[in-house]
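Reopening this ticket.

The earlier resolution said the output was attached, but the attachment link was broken on my side. Pasting everything inline this time so it's all in one place.
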Amino acid sequence: MILDPRAISTPVYEALSELRSQTQDNTGLKEQKNQAVELYTYLSTWGMMRLKAEEQALSQDGKKQVVREYFKCLQELSEIENLEGDRGLATLKNLTTEDYLGLTGLGLSLAREFSFWASAIYHDVSGED
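Inline output:
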């Protein structure tokens, strides 16, 4: 098996680039950037299940879009079905301990990529709301 170092970077870059191109207002861009940068801290503090539950609770569209894209990328990379969407929380709850911990490790790596690419893709977006 050959490990391609682009395997994690590519889906994150594509997801954030697409979100950026779909958003015209500066407030939405700030929300997207801030959420992408904060994913790692949130995940490492509160865990994968709470992040998934937070997706449903977020009221700002920019932040919600980033969390949705995060779980979409995580599903693609992990090949675990039903992580994105409404069944994601049940999927996480029903994983074995080993699978959940492994997914969390992958999720933390993915969150670091979101933080890096947010700084690169949203380089001209500054300030917080």
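Reporter confirms the inline version is readable. The helical segments are 6-22, 26-46, 48-57, 61-78, 88-94, 97-121. The longest helix spans residues 97-121.
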